[in-house]
Amino acid sequence: MASHYRQMQVATVAGHGAAAFDSASRAVLTLHMHNKAGVKMTMPTGSVRVGDVIRLRFGLGPFSVHGSCDVTEVVDEPRRRGFTYHTRPDHPEEGEESFFVDWVADDSVVVRLHSNSRPRRWFMRLGGPVSRLAQALINRRYLRVVRKIVAAEAPGQ
């Protein structure tokens, strides 16, 4: 098994101003961004909280990948919101992933995703570069989805 964790960071400007910040934050903290991107995630409440277990499913039927994660951090500040989770033993990857929305000084709303992970299951190790590509594609899909959500909900975006 590979001992090294791989890091991946992606970011996008989702919009500008308070309405965009609220919309993007809601999309991240309610897992709406994930679900709209095709990663079905469930949690015990309507918004992530520290200690929650998030369950996920990605794929179709017998080709679905299942796993769960523990929410280890939630940030709800006037200009920064988001959360971090750590994968549980049933997850195909081992590591952490963070999803944050920052309302920066120039009024831009920036959505940032950061992951630090390595394959845990044989099929993820076997997939090698294909697994990394799939992770990169889903992260980019998350960003595309949150931009669409903000455009639909925040006036003037």
TrEMBL record:
Residues 3-144 form the DUF1990 domain. InterPro entries: DUF1990, UCP010260. Pfam families: DUF1990. It comes from the Bacteria. This is DUF1990 domain-containing protein. It comes from Jatrophihabitans lederbergiae.
